[in-house]
Amino acid sequence: MMPGWTWTALMGNVGPTNEKDVKKPAGSWYPSQVAEELMKDLEMRSFYIVCPDGETDRALDQARMKWASEDLVAGRPALSR
After folding, report:
1. pLDDT tens digits for 17-47?
2. Please, which of 4, 38, 60, 77 could form a disulfide with 51 given CB 3.0 to 4.6 Å?
């Protein structure tokens, strides 16, 4: 599972807070959104679970993952793109 950018507000947290009362950065996900994505993908019997981050679309995420895996197979340095 790759949860992406998950906003937990741990820095300076004042205790349990309702998500509707929390201001999170644009593009980030609440932990509950990550959990929903996890459950949805598990129901589909997905092995790899990649949560979007709200800023990068699925096609770009897939292109980056493909390139990174090809770095390994082709013997290129990491993050060669």
Report:
1. 777 777 788 888 888 999 999 999 999 999 9
2. 4
